[in-house]
Amino acid sequence: xxxxxxxxxxxxxxxxxxxxxxxxxxxxxxxxxxxxxxxxxxxxxxxxxxxxxxxxxxxxxxxxxxxxxxxxxxxxxxxxxxxxxxxxxxxxxxxxxxxxxxxxxxxxxxxxxxxxxxxxxxxxxxxxxxxxxxxxxxxxxxxxxxxxxxxxxxxxxxxxxxxxxxxxxxxxxxxxxxxxxxxxxxxxxxxxxxxxxxxxxxxxxxxxxxxxxxxxxxxxxxxxxxxxxxxxxxxxxxxxxxxxxxxxxxxxxxxxxxxxxxxxxxxxxxxxxxxxxxxxxxxxxxxx
Length: 288
Known about the structure:
Elements: H1 2-20, H2 25-46, H3 58-85, H4 88-95, H5 98-109, H6 116-134, H7 145-168, H8 174-188, H9 198-202, H10 205-232, H11 235-241, H12 244-256, H13 263-282
């Protein structure tokens, strides 16, 4: 829940950085991932956790590479793109559809027919997304198509991130997994960044404080806490407990960025959050 709150607040902070200070999406993703990743690896080394043993296990390092590029980098980059083209509240809610994808994956994998709670959750998710995007007005989007598209992609990648990390956590320490994944993802996106160090010189003090919050609280601590929770909970249970993320993003966006939410958008937000609560109450997802 703490991780989810930090994610929600960091999304709102990222919206301010993108739209008010015109910081590049690729630059912020690169910086937050590299700094957080290297710090986590240093902390793991300090705790005596072997840093390179995972690279001696072929199946593990191949899965780690996939997790780093598709899961870690994919989730952060698409989520921030959705924020840059729209707003943090809508981007977070679209990403929050991930538990639906997780549950459907387990039903397809296990070749089971969706139960009544699953169909109910799907209907809630569809209705909630429709109201969020249109505010009840047919043929009219309240956020850009690009924001909607990247938000949906972010949700799919978050589902992959959650399932994939659960497999890695069966063998390896969470510090190693998150640390290497962030470092690899940050290095991978460097070619897309115009100048890695120049923005540090031009940014004002207030912007640097906000970016520091995004990197330390919204990335370093949030991802570590969330992935550590998967060690003790199922992927779906972790997603259910993160229900405070969209709530914190919405409240912060309304209070600090004055993002307007109409009645039907608010109703849609409630339906999306209810979607995950329905799934959690019925315990329809596989714990594996």
